[in-house]
Amino acid sequence: MASLGHVTPQSMHFAEPLRLRSGAQLADYTLVYETYGTLNADKSNAVLVCHALNASHHVAGTYEGVPKSEGWWDNLVGPGKPLDTDRFFVIGINNPGSCFGSTGPMHANPATGKPYGADFPVVTVEDWVQAQALLLDRLGIRTLAAVMGGSLGGMQALSWSLQFPERVRHCIAIATAPNLSAQNIAFNEVARRAIVTDPDFHGGHYYEHGVVPKRGLRVARMIGHITYLSDDAMAEKFGRSLRAAELAYSTQEIEFQIESYLRYQGDKFSEYFDANTYLLITRALDYFDPARDHGGDLSRAMARARAKFLVVSFTTDWRFSPARSREIVKALLDNRRDVSYAEIDAPHGHDAFLLEDARYHAVVRAYYERIAREIEEGRDDE
Amino acid sequence: MASLGHVTPQSMHFAEPLRLRSGAQLADYTLVYETYGTLNADKSNAVLVCHALNASHHVAGTYEGVPKSEGWWDNLVGPGKPLDTDRFFVIGINNPGSCFGSTGPMHANPATGKPYGADFPVVTVEDWVQAQALLLDRLGIRTLAAVMGGSLGGMQALSWSLQFPERVRHCIAIATAPNLSAQNIAFNEVARRAIVTDPDFHGGHYYEHGVVPKRGLRVARMIGHITYLSDDAMAEKFGRSLRAAELAYSTQEIEFQIESYLRYQGDKFSEYFDANTYLLITRALDYFDPARDHGGDLSRAMARARAKFLVVSFTTDWRFSPARSREIVKALLDNRRDVSYAEIDAPHGHDAFLLEDARYHAVVRAYYERIAREIEEGRDDE
């Protein structure tokens, strides 16, 4: 299927401070974003795609002259694809605190002139949604045909439906959860400890020391990868395959293919990802919990939502299992909301939301066709 | 129930080298062990209890003058307990490579006079079983009424039934697996990378630098703890409980109780456990795979076994799930071996094998009563 072709990121500067959940604020800041397709005359076909931990505003298409620069959801977003850019105007925004262009820990703190580092304020899912809404205001987009995201992106989609119920017609939440379990938090905490206790972390001010806590980032990423893949997918892909014909009997050399894979993933990640961003984003995951302000009652929390929902989960996802998606569905049904739910039998674990799976993509395609019909019908009414 | 009371470790020196699977050998070495109960006249009531990753020869009882010094399986082993020391002579042996008294990486390498460190030879489950057998030879014990272990200890029990089929009457393998899955190896590898990349590791020769790679050990232990507990047990015990009444909005301070628990476990472990031992023992886990020499066919591998078996698994154990125990049971049944299998519905995950659970202990008790009857009947025959 045709890709979007070359796309170009844009940036927008905000001089007004962003007031954060923590009580702190982000002085002035810049958001980097991309758009694909054309906003229609009545601005009714805008879809916001929210990114997860290590992704960005670069959702689809490629960068001219950069090989292998496909966006992270290029298989889902483009002309003729499930989210069809011939019909929808798609927006991807890099969240503040990230390390892909929007203001983050590696940028200068206006208060000191030095990089924020560990002084970058803690940001939450709600803060990101707030920032995204301000950018949409500037684009003149009042109402979203849909907000969509997977994993942490799905949390942002859910949060949109609660923070701005009147601005969201459809919320598509994929492979996500209404909050992290103790086990989810535990994995995040181990990853953070690996980073923070790396001597090259320097209390989060490593930029000034000309180093990067790569050891910690590698371990963090290796832990992450284990939770993204299903046990079965790992068994299928690597099993107990050895790298060499014979055992080397070594505690430090690579013996098994799975070790080689994890080390490679860790090394690659530590070359491009920022350690402070890793801390910030895992914390945003930990904090997300819309039921918290309602005594832990998700149904009461979701009562504010006005959107129609598509919730998708994957059978082998043990990071955010189908049971967690069903909690969201139940809370919506308790409020008599319009909700479609698909539990996709896929072997890939949490990673499935990024992969091309025929049944999964068919569900998303059908849902966007429904949205497109509603837009058409809405236009006919006028 | 009464405990064994005070127990005393003993040690035995071996001047003959231990030939290892890797082709290397351990020059001369010492094994530390404990025994409880009395060996009967025909030496038919001996039970060997094999230890897992961070345990030792100190299976039951306490050390005089040392508070909280109960052995790691004190709830299961003692007078009147499921493994009744009034009827059985129980032996616990610290495996070579461990850090609780038997020759290990912190002891002097006779070739250099300096601590072995990373030069301690790689040891396998089979090597440990070999060493245990040599110690039993010296105690004059030819045949074991039973060999029992949980987790990595269960692998040793299985290995006994294959290496010395004629010396084992009963094999009790609890919460174990016929080999590690790719996911199991992946967790081990992340833990090892955390240790090896700690700057205080010094290539495994940290003793000479007067430091310990505590950062890596902490992270390794935190990862381990996540895999020992079930998701449900963590949710039950910690959930999303906060340490303080209000969120601190910090990436590095403790917010959630689960973080506090994991950090505490990591800190405690890093105070007493040896990093080189951690590498060695996780590698022994990775390598264990009796089917490997039989083209991956576990049934063919288990054909050598002559013992009767009790296999026990726990429903919420996701480290070594019931499915892995069922593989062992199937391989035994394929060979028409006498095997009892209990799948205990317990909420605690892998840790369940160390905990006091009425149904689990009843199964083990009943099985030892059967063994005791067989010993009685054998004696009557003579």
TrEMBL record, chains A, B:
Signal peptide: none annotated. Residues 45-356 form the AB hydrolase-1 domain. It holds the Pfam family Abhydrolase_1. Its EC number is 2.3.1.46. Pathway: Amino-acid biosynthesis; L-methionine biosynthesis via de novo pathway; O-succinyl-L-homoserine from L-homoserine: step 1/1. It comes from the Bacteria. The record marks 319 as: Important for acyl-CoA specificity. The active site is at residues 151, 317, 350. Keywords: Acyltransferase, Amino-acid biosynthesis, Cytoplasm, Methionine biosynthesis, Transferase. GO terms for molecular function: homoserine O-acetyltransferase activity. It is found in: Cytoplasm. It catalyses: L-homoserine + succinyl-CoA = O-succinyl-L-homoserine + CoA. Substrate binds at residues 221, 351. Belongs to the AB hydrolase superfamily. MetX family. Homodimer. Transfers a succinyl group from succinyl-CoA to L-homoserine, forming succinyl-L-homoserine. This is Homoserine O-succinyltransferase. The gene is metXS.
